[in-house]
Request: fold
Amino acid sequence: MLCEALATCKPPLQVEVASCLPVDWDNATLGDVVDTLAAGVSVNADNRQIGEGEIGVLKTSCVSGGQFVADEHKAVLADEIDRVRTPVRAGSIIISRMNTPALVGASAYVDEDHPHLFLPDRLWQLRTNERADCRWLSYSMQSASFRCFIDDIATGTSGSMKNISKERLLKALLALPPLDEQQRIAEVLRSVDVAIAAAQQAADLSRALQASLITAQCFGHGYETVSLGDILTDIRYGTSAKCDASAADGHPVLRIPNVVNGRVELEDLKYASASDADLQRFSLAANDVVVVRTNGNPAYIGRSALVAADMMACMFASYLIRMRFDVNRAWSPYIYATLNSQPVREKLLKAATTSAGNYNINTVSLKGITIPLPNLETQHQIGEVIKMATEAASACENEVKTNQQVKAMLMSDLLSGRVRVPA
Reply:
């Protein structure tokens, strides 16, 4: 598997395999290689991108999937401009110090200066000293072992929001290569990021074409308009049971990270204990539609997935909503398709509320969402057309996933010193 991964790099790598930490590497802490770790200030801002002559404050969603997304910002109000501090600088790492349990500690490398963008108090900007290459450190901070460290140090009484402190973060352990090897490692991983970005662009285009097809097939044909509440037989929030059981003595629970790109991903499942009554209430069945009801990123609100007939038996967590439809009036694959159309996405965003930096949608709002509803035969015909576009989009997304797996494997080996990158 490693050889296959290395073969994707241009030019092909030659490696030296080491069984333990190389003798020329050091054991260090994050604090040993940090020059500055600065926070920003929260200011009042309009939820829109900046225009000419304006300045912006970053949203926590500017850190996404290990990438810095400069467009995720808000325009600072004129009377708040004097309060901003910590502009976004090239060669730094942006870190989310306060976020949901899955996203707290998320980080991304910044390639270029953004002098008109500033940090809020929920983000830190890290700059390294002469001992570390900042891009290499960014990859180290995205590794699986570093993620485990963040999970251990994150605190907070709220189940939906966690924090990390500077003191604890700076105690993170690092395997520190010589500076020139750090730079070589970073370049290898950057080349994989380029491949991931190209595949992601193709996947985004494919999803955009799918969305356009859904809109063209479902809207503007004079079909009856109904609210989801008119065709639902059941709608409910998921279980609040703590996912602290093992796979051997618990039941799998779908969470927000398992609802990806319109489908259910069964990787990284968590398990919870449950009574027979709770299993009956919170289990998923074929053709159920699950909807993300809360997230810090508004683009994820209302994100949905259709439960496949061959999916293993699972419960669903409280941050998700399960919908079941009257089979005599509605075909779930068609309903799922309309939920992913641009017109319905806009309705979902308008129905969302905000609280503590999170966007939320509830069962009442969902039941009020209206969609076009042709007869069942037409729903099936439309569904088959959309299915082909969905399969094409899924193929592109699978390529992204494969490249991400390659990156994860390379990160594990290169950042630990098990595989050396020769000069």
Summary: The first helix runs from residue 2 to 7. Confidence is low (pLDDT under 50) at residues 1-5. The CA atoms of residues 353 and 360 lie 5 Å apart. The two ends are 23 Å apart (CA to CA).
